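Q: I have two molecules that I believe assemble together. Could you output structure tokens for the complex as a whole instead of separate predictions?
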Amino acid sequence: VRTADVADAAKAGVLLFVAAIVQVSILDDVLVLGGTPDLLLVTLLLIALLRGTMVGAAGGFFAGLVVDTATLSTMGLTSLLLTVAGYWIGRYGETTGRDRSHAPFVSVAVVTVLYAIGSLLVHFMLGDPAPAGTVFRDVWPSAALNLILTWPVYAVCRRLFRAPEWTERAQEVQLLG
Amino acid sequence: VPRNRTARAAVLAGSVQRSAGPAYPSKTRSVLRRRAVLGTLLFLALVLITVSVRESDGGALHRIQNAGATVLRPFQVAAERVAQPFKDVYGYFDGLASAKSQNKRLRLELEQARQQAIANVSAARDAAQLRALLRFEDSPRFPQNYRAVNARVISFPSGPFQQQVTIAAGTSSGIRLHTPVVDTGGNLVGQVTRTAPTASQVTLLTDPDSAVSAVDLQTRITGLLQHSSGSALELDRVTKDVVVNKGDVIVTAGTRNPRYPDLYPRGIPIGVVTSVGQTDTDLYKQIQVSPFVNFSRLDAVAALVSTKPVPNLP
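A: Yes, here they are, computed for all two components at once.
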């Protein structure tokens, strides 16, 4: 394990912890046109986009635990959803999403909608209240708010994390002579 | 600087002789590791969900979660304090926008309340005298027999699935399961559904599983108050032969009905009737109630700890 990887993991951990605390303490109370900005989801996705699947999945699991602990809700539920979201966007970053300027915005918009649907399904399966109408009505303003958050959060993440070195790039180039 | 090469063509390594590599190429190893990590984390999350749902509130995982919540509480309180000035500024300008119309309405309400208060003073005096004459044994009364534990709200419902908030006071402050919770104006917010030493989870009235035995203050008609849609409530189980008027105030009934055991003391204000309707097919009236509490603007609440023993149902 390289020192740079450990430093990246520590930075990601701190950033996600702060985002989780801000989300549950402040932003969950903010309602704009029926939508609520999700700083934690945006931060996780952008870190995953920059650092790949491992950091995305582990960061999602850790952030979910913080949220579930702070809100005294069902443990593991947010972790499950954020782990999948982090892994998926990490994979996108490692493959087709690399070097594309629109990747952060596409990732945040798509995952905000899918995350809402995933939450709906998980809560429905657990027998919790799952108001599909409310979810599908509120997810659009939430996605718009998350897109607004994407630009500043991505700027912070780009500053904090070094340029990615994806393992799936061409491995060897040899000069013949 | 002379370069020690005989040819300058660069090609991909596919056609180049290479030394024998490891049993698994690095790419395959990376894929396997990645999937193993994902699988492990998902498995752990599912185990946590299963244990969390199935075990009792006193179980090991819940105890760990409570300890974790205690550790996280200072961070939440700090974040809340940092955000408070910004919330206040927003609230100030938000209030200015509706101040004029609100002022007019409040003046009208104040005049009505003043007249009502004069009538209430003599009625209360009569009631106290009669109660003393009858040696009337009462259940704990709100607010006389309750001690308010004031607490800040440190986490809010995350999305439409959750109708719970977490408050910064727990069993160490005397809060127990089912402790009623009111807002700063004394209006009903909900009840405590989970406790930790320094934090508690409060389930709001807007939770679909919440039900409160309620009474119309003007007509004394009782019903069951449940969540309707959005932040609206519905007074159910009111038969069509009784009269309920728009504008009537609904308060907690405080009854100990075995079918709908009421956890709330009598007389906590809940909301005002906004519409009354009925259909030929329904057994009951459809009564919409607008709550006094603004559930999206809960900053601080008071948990009502009874100072008098609550009677148990036989």
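A: One point stands out. DSSP finds six helices and one strand in chain A.
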